[in-house]
Specification:
Helix content: 10-25%
Low-confidence stretches: none
Oligomer: single chain
Structural class: alpha/beta
Order of helices and strands: EEEHHEHEHEEHEHEHEHEHE
CATH topology of the domain at 9-211: Leucine-rich repeat, LRR (right-handed beta-alpha superhelix)
Shape: globular
Largest sheet: 12 strands, mixed
Distance between the termini: 9 Å
Strand order of the largest sheet: 1-2-3-4-5-6-7-8-9-10-11-12
Mean pLDDT: 94
CATH superfamily of the domain at 9-211: Ribonuclease Inhibitor
Radius of gyration: 20 Å
CATH architecture of the domain at 9-211: Alpha-Beta Horseshoe
């Protein structure tokens, strides 16, 4: 499976491609991107970002979406990151940032080159939402950010160093944490041991925990089924992975699962019998998108 459709909304706002003619309003999340025709005409993401920064209403923009840039599979966005940081004074009201909003036709998720977000987070103290797609070259650093409420990292294979940086970070306002772990073939090099410190010492205000798109989801489910973190959060999202009856049975047998408001397991490999048992829980359970394994081969939603 792949990401085949561009997002229509971000942080509650409709996404609109920025144009100098229409200008900026606080009613939209503005997107800049470079498509094939743009590249043929010599346009660059740097040039489009410069045009955006020159808009007289730039300070009204609350949400920014960065789509495809030229040769995202081969070129890092370091220069773009530098420009974003240098223009932080103009982006004083920016609350939400999404970098890498691409479909597979623009660039496969596991091919997207990312960069170091340390200085971006240091420069935008009022940022509340950060969403990142792709993990090649992704770095967080040990983040100390008091305003960030939502962190989403979508990947086909997440390097364990990103998880370890997150564990060392101070994010007192974080409520929504969503990590797409992916698979070993595309860069995931961690295991349950890597994740345990994240579960055992959670961020103080977290209400949503998503460990998604994972090939080790059965192990994660088995560990979390009796974990105290389930009494803290409202939603446990283990969707888009390779969950089997092993993980389902662990959750059913766990003592903490009924403390949740929602358990999201959609895109899974559980049997019809296990699905029926899970619907008997006293909480909202999403078990849609059942898949059939092929000779014991199971796949996450996005890897390549």
């Amino acid at each position: 499976m792949t990401i085949g459709k561009n997002e229509s909304f971000f942080n509650g706002l409709e996404i609109k491609i920025y144009s100098e003619i229409d200008g900026i309003s606080d009613k939209y999340a503005y997107k800049i991107m470079v498509d094939y025709d743009d590249e043929e005409n010599g346009l660059t993401i740097a040039g489009k970002f410069k045009d955006l920064m020159n808009d007289p209403q730039i300070s009204d923009m609350q949400a920014l979406v960065i789509g495809s840039w030229e040769e995202a599979f081969d070129m890092s966005p370091d220069d773009l990151f530098t420009s974003i940081i240098e223009n932080s004074d103009k982006l004083q009201n920016l609350k939400a940032l999404f970098i890498g909003e691409m479909t597979f036709e623009e660039c496969e998720m596991s091919w997207i080159n990312q960069g170091n977000y340390t200085e971006i987070l240091n420069s935008f103290k009022g940022l509340e939402v950060l969403r990142v797609r792709g993990a090649n070259g992704l770095k967080l650093g040990s983040v100390n950010h008091r305003s960030l409420k939502t962190l989403i990292i979508e990947s086909g294979g997440l390097d364990s160093e990103v998880i370890m940086d997150l564990i060392k970070s101070n994010l007192p306002s974080l409520k929504h944490l969503e990590l797409w772990l992916g698979v070993e073939d595309y860069g995931f090099n961690g295991d349950l041991k890597t994740l345990k410190p994240l579960f055992d010492n959670p961020f103080p205000n977290i209400t949503y925990l998503g460990i998604k798109n994972s090939e080790i989801v059965d192990n994660v489910a088995s560990y979390l089924a009796n974990h105290a973190i389930l009494e803290k959060i409202d939603t446990l999202d283990l969707s888009l992975g390779t969950m089997t009856d092993v993980g389902g049975e662990a959750l059913l047998s766990g003592s903490k699962v009924n403390s949740l408001k929602k358990l999201d397991l959609h895109h899974h490999f559980m049997s019809a019998g296990m699905m029926k048992k899970l619907t008997g829980l006293s909480i909202d359970v999403d078990i849609t998108n059942k898949n059939e394994d092929e000779d014991d081969w199971r796949y996450v939603y996005v890897s390549e």
